[in-house]
Amino acid sequence: MIKALLLIFFTVATWERIVEARRNIGFILGVYLLPLLLLSSAGEVYGLMHWGKPRSEYGGPVPLAQYAAIHYAVIKIALNLVAVFVIAKIIQSIAVSFRGRQTYVQAFTCIAYGISPLVMLQLLNGLPNMPAWVTWAIGIVLCATVLYQGMPRVLLPDPTHTLGLYFMSVLMMLMTTALVQFLTGLVLEHQIRAAITPPVILLH
Questions:
Q1: pTM assigned to the model
Q2: Tens digit of pLDDT for each residue in 147-165?
Q3: What whole-number distance in Å separates Cα of residue 36 and Cα of residue 156?
Q4: How far is residue 75's CA from residue 141's CA, in Å, rounded to a whole number?
Q5: Is residue 126 part of a domain?
Q6: Total domain count for the chain?
Q7: Enclosing domain of residue 187
Q8: Residue 201 covered by a domain
Q9: In 10 A of CB 65, how many CB atoms?
């Protein structure tokens, strides 16, 4: 989470250190991205279990049981990981189509670190009155700002294609993360409705 904050407030210097480190996908995934996802999800799970989410038809916040909150978090982590891998592959394909020689490791590095402000802000979703789409919107703006400095340094595109590749990267991230947000919202809605609905007792 510290590096996610550094990317927001000290963008250029942090990207330069990332480029110099030349980490592989396993390191980035295991040491940076997955722990960040677990930390933000843990905060959200805590909030869902202790405070819940407001429901007007219920008369107040609806807390989730531990298994329901964890089930939701696992699905969200999995979808976010899939999104990172898919976006990285798309961006690499677009970069190569511009007659570049970018590798998948470069694209994954760019997206895994570039998406971290959004992942970090998901921690705020545990607050009872915090709409998930608000944190997503703020996160996407921060991701776009971070990627603006990071993409040219990591992917090293041809200067004539840099702006086009940047806009395509932001667009792919926006569309994919919006889909993840929508799907995880459906899962959370299902869990909340299950918590509200009383169990059916069958009488024989």
A1: 0.89
A2: 999 999 999 888 888 898 9
A3: 26
A4: 24
A5: yes
A6: 1
A7: 2-6+24-196
A8: no
A9: 13
